[in-house]
Design brief:
alpha/beta, seven-stranded mixed beta sheet, 28 helices
Length: 668
């Protein structure tokens, strides 16, 4: 963005006089306004800081936190650039591991290192070199805000080390600082804070593209990290929305959360993370399905990694089946009270012939893989038994009273929405519903029709209504039901398929019944004209603009690519979830957007944080340059830059107003 000389006239000053008078309260003198212009102009000409995009972590907290700590390989690249051949490969690996996991790595080093004094002196010097490099894109003011309170002054001195003009005296000054840190036995604490500062400064802003929850066992740990992280935002995914519904008390969403947790054998998020009491479900399942083999409700393969014994597997299968049957009943209740959802075809229990053990779909009878349905009354198949009703009341109470779950949901509501636009990048989790001809599809919500950005805004507003105390009761209940629709409804921008075939996948062998036809978005997501149309409709401008989304894993084993529509659409769900890795062949994509352009990073499976700490193994990643700018981007080329430029223009008007008598300076 080229800066143009501001043309200021008396007419423009008179038009903006009221605003300029308000601005004068913050900058009451010519000196104040001039100083701020100088500061802002300096910021505008700093290199653009790095943004980090991550999608679909699905509870894989170790892998997520590692990618966050190493900034998708950014820290490792900087270490290599700084030290080159000056350090051996093993030494650079050890330095990187220390930066990622300072507390744990220091303990290992202290157990084997013979001369800790020498180690501290060398390591502190290396860490400060890395810290200077990653802080080079920021003003001193911003860096100062990130500094730890205890060591802030010392770090600031070391960060801006310069021997120029002072020679040996200045060199001795910095050496004394380092030696004093060591002599006062504060080196460990200092190293830990420097490493954390490097992690914070490596990435200016984190963009999450949804689906924190389900499959992996550490969603609550990811949320703990995020709630204490600075400078991040999220566009909600369908799995996040499902947990929103559960937290709001929607019983169908609660059943879905429980079912998926049991399906993958990952109970830690529910029990350890959020204190959800599963004992009532276990008791009910043992009493109701004690003699049922529940062969269709075994754990998926990832459960084998959780060291779950056969007795526990058996109990989980019973609980899994019990909550699945209840889910079908709870969903039917929503479908009946919300005919405008048009999901009557998802009510299937009444189509079962229990005597024959079959179900009739589309004028064809299919044998059931499991016909043991003791709680399904043929005369009223969607009615909950007394025991099921009591169970749901108790479980719902657990979700409604989980303080930690609600803190995490509040955090996601505060930092998130259905879509986001940042620096010419449009982000959403899954799709924008389209018609067969590729145009934006109108979706009816309570008698009104919405499409594109208006649909995203409306659905986001409805989600927030489910948690607002100011929302009237009837509207809040609708919002809770609509959250369930966002999870599995055909016109949901978070789902965008004709149906969710949960029943068929459990109970029918014929895989033709399992098919879920994707919306037209997925037919057009490689069409540059359609992608441009979507970008235009959301008001996304810029020479280099993109859509970035996740949701659908990129199956690299089948030759799929995350780069579509001539580079204008980037799909970065590559399979953080271990359940998807056999299909995708990788363990996820992440994206970094720095001053030189866009880098797509492909990650191999991450074994564990413990192995990374002990052996120094980093996630094996490969970087693909998506787009390289012909010229380096600066802050002035970003959204923040446009805001700062506008402020500069107004401050220049304020100077004109002071110097030409429209506004008088205020003596301090």
């Amino acid at each position: 963005m080229d800066q143009k000389e501001t043309i200021i006239s008396e007419e423009s000053i008179k038009e903006d006089l009221r605003y300029l008078q308000l601005l004068a309260q913050s900058y009451p003198t010519i000196a104040d306004a001039s100083t701020e212009i100088i500061n802002l102009q300096a910021i505008l000409n700093l290199p653009k800081p790095t943004e980090h995009f991550i999608s679909d972590p699905h509870g894989e907290s170790d892998a997520f936190n590692h990618v966050l700590r190493n900034a998708s390989g950014y820290v490792k690249r900087k270490v290599n650039e700084i030290f080159g051949d000056a350090l051996k490969k093993a030494e650079k690996r050890e330095l990187c591991t220390l930066i990622y996991y300072p507390e744990q790595k220091l303990q290992l080093i202290k157990a084997t290192e013979k001369d800790m004094g020498e180690f501290y002196a060398v390591t502190l010097n290396h860490l400060m070199q890395v810290c200077r490099e990653v802080s080079s894109k920021y003003t001193r003011s911003k860096i100062r805000k990130e500094l730890p309170r205890e060591f802030g002054y010392i770090i600031e001195e070391l960060l801006h080390e310069s021997y120029s003009g002072y020679g040996e005296k200045k060199h001795r000054y910095y050496n004394v600082i380092v030696q004093t840190i060591i002599e006062t036995q504060r080196a460990d604490e200092f190293i830990i804070e420097i490493c954390k500062l490097i992690q914070r400064l490596a990435i200016d802003r984190l963009h999450l593209l949804g689906d924190i929850f389900d499959r992996g066992a550490g969603a609550h740990l990811i949320m703990d990290t995020l709630c204490n992280y600075s400078h991040w935002d999220i566009v909600w995914g369908n799995h996040d929305i499902e947990w929103f519904g559960a937290a709001a008390g929607n019983r169908a969403c609660i059943c879905n959360v429980l079912r998926l947790t049991l399906r993958y054998g990952n109970l830690a998020t529910l029990e350890d993370g959020y204190g959800i009491n599963l004992m009532p479900l276990a008791t009910f399942a043992l009493e109701t399905y004690a003699n049922d083999p529940c062969s269709q409700f075994g754990l998926l393969d990832p459960g084998k990694d959780n060291n779950i014994d056969e007795k526990t597997r058996r109990l989980i299968a019973l609980m899994h089946k019990a909550i699945t049957i209840i889910q079908f009943k709870e969903e039917a209740r929503i479908i009946d009270r919300r005919p405008d959802f048009h999901m009557e075809d998802r009510k299937l229990l009444h189509l079962i012939d229990q005597q024959k053990g079959t179900i009739r779909l589309d004028d064809k009878d299919y044998p059931l893989l499991d016909s043991c349905l003791p709680t399904v009354n043929p005369q009223d198949p969607y009615a909950l038994s007394e025991e099921e009703e009591l169970l749901m009341q108790r479980i719902t109470h657990s979700f409604l009273t989980s303080d930690k779950l609600h803190r995490h949901v509040d955090c996601l509501l505060a930092h998130g929405c259905m879509y986001a636009i940042a620096n010419s990048n449009l982000m959403y989790h899954a799709s924008v519903p389209l018609n067969e001809d590729g145009s934006l599809k109108e979706v009816e919500i309570r008698g009104k029709r919405y499409k594109g950005i208006e649909l995203m805004k409306k659905t986001g507003y409805i989600v927030r209504e489910a948690f607002s105390r100011d929302t009237p009761e009837e509207e809040r209940l609708f919002a809770q039901d609509y959250i369930w629709y966002l999870w599995c409804g055909p016109d949901s921008p978070l789902f965008d398929k004709d149906k969710m075939t949960t029943f068929e996948r459990y109970f029918i062998a014929d895989k033709t019944t399992h098919k879920e036809a994707k919306g037209y978005y997925y037919q057009y997501n490689n069409d540059e004209k359609v992608i441009d149309m979507i970008l235009d409709s959301f008001g996304v401008e810029g020479e280099h603009r993109h859509i970035i989304n996740g949701h659908v894993p990129v199956r690299t084993l089948k030759g799929e690519t995350p780069i579509k529509a001539n580079g204008k659409l980037l799909v970065i769900d590559g399979g953080f979830s271990k359940a998807y890795q056999p299909k995708t062949g990788i363990a996820g994509y992440t994206l970094t957007f720095h001053s030189r352009g866009l880098d797509l990073v492909q990650h191999q499976p991450f074994r564990s944080a413990n192995e990374a700490i002990i052996s120094g193994d980093d996630i094996k990643s490969s970087t693909q340059i998506v787009e390289m700018s012909s010229k380096r981007m600066y802050v002035k080329d970003t959204d923040k830059g446009r805001t700062l430029l506008a402020k500069v223009e107004n401050l220049k008007k304020l100077l004109y107003a002071y110097r030409n008598g429209f506004i008088k300076e205020i003596n301090k």
